[in-house]
Design goal:
- There is one protein chain.
- By secondary structure, the chain is α/β, with parallel strands linked by helices.
- It has 3 domains: 175 residues, FAD/NAD(P)-binding domain; 139 residues, Polyamine Oxidase, Chain A, domain 2 (Alpha-Beta Complex), CATH 3.90.660; 83 residues, protoporphyrinogen ix oxidase, domain 3 (Orthogonal Bundle).
- The strands form 5 sheets. It has a 7-stranded mixed β-sheet, with helices on both faces.
- Strand 11 and strand 12 form a beta hairpin.
- Helix 1 packs parallel to helix 8 and helix 2 crosses helix 12.
- The longest helix has 16 residues.
- The radius of gyration is 23 Å and the shape is globular.
- The protein starts with 22 loop residues before the first strand and ends with a helix.
- The relative contact order is 0.20.
- The N terminus is likely disordered.
Amino acid sequence: MTTPTPSPASIVGDPRDAFHAQSWAVIGAGAIGLSVARRLAEAGRSVTVYERDGFVGGQAAGFEVEPGVWLERFYHHVFRSDRIVRRTYEELGLAEGLSWTHPLTATLLDGKIAQLDSPISLLRFRGLPLSARLRMGATLAALRLIPRGGLLEGRAAGPWLRRWMGRASYDRIWRPLFEGKFGAAAEEIALPWFWARVHDRTSALGYPRGGFRPLYEGLAERVRGAGGTVRLNTAVESVERTDNGYSVRARGASGIETQRHDAVISTLPPRLTADLASELPDSWRARYATVPAQTAHCLILALDRSLTDTYWLNVNDAGYPFLVVVEHTNMRAPSEYGGRRIVYLGSYRDPADPMLSLSADQLVDAFAPHLARINPTFDKSWITDRWLFAVRDAQPIVGTDFRDRIPPFETPLPGLYVATIGQVYPHDRGQNYAVGLGERLAAQLLK
């Protein structure tokens, strides 16, 4: 893939100067931003991280469910195969806090909850005829044997899975999940993305004591310890080129401030980067800043008793207003949360979905009848607290043309770089690949 080359008259300075930049601005203190900032700072570069929120961690950030007890705003765990994030825990001296379990993953189909998280459970699964189960198992095994997702590029997952798994397996098990995550674009999703979900994941799941907050606080401390700065509650409003670098205009607690940097890395979605950098050419915007994306939407409930005995429940039956029920305290002990049971009700929604305008209390009223379908004894009186979170641009629509719409690190503006979650494709968005992406960019810039 090539990046459109601006005319010499439009370039301020030599593009190679960015590689020798000493002062870097990093926009966003999530996994990508903190990882690239850490490596640049440890290499002796001057780094300032700008974060509009009052905390680090991005989409993996947490909140206090009670004083001193933290929980992620969106459900998170790591897999045994997540070598990069496991290595990061070791480097930060936090590895002892990361524990591993094999919690139950199940599917709600035909009103019944059935385990479906291993070859053995697939063979025992009664929601499909035996022939369909065998065919689906063989197809998943074949995908695991394919070494690179790029070998499947150009194919849509839906038609391919229907062909090899059979219509029954696809329509009952996979199509509801594709539609729940990608909506009307379900039939357009690229097969390499599905390959990565099958190829990368393990049944063993890891979760750290105290949540993921110490990981991101640790990364931020590494940045500061190497001489960098992490500015929270500071929203970047514009990035403009100057004769000797970039002027970053940001709004913080003391008002609007402007600071000069040699180079800038934006870890925001391309749509937002385009809003900040007005000089990005229309050709770049049309290709990279217009990829549609779903909004992550999550209602979290604290209950005084368990809803199910399942950690992860895919909701395949029609009519439910959420895609997944993640009962966090079926992986972690309820005693870590004051004896309460923690349940995430997660979904991905089109940014125009009217459900996004509802309050937490309104969603509780809308969701309660469906929770009673899952557990007929459920009553709203079980709920002791509720929290609601949503974030735009959380899940790009990874269609068959997605690879051609992934921006390279370099933009047409010398010294302006982008590092965004879509660049981990074909892998699914996740902390492991986000940390790896930040480190890969830093290594490239430091060569």
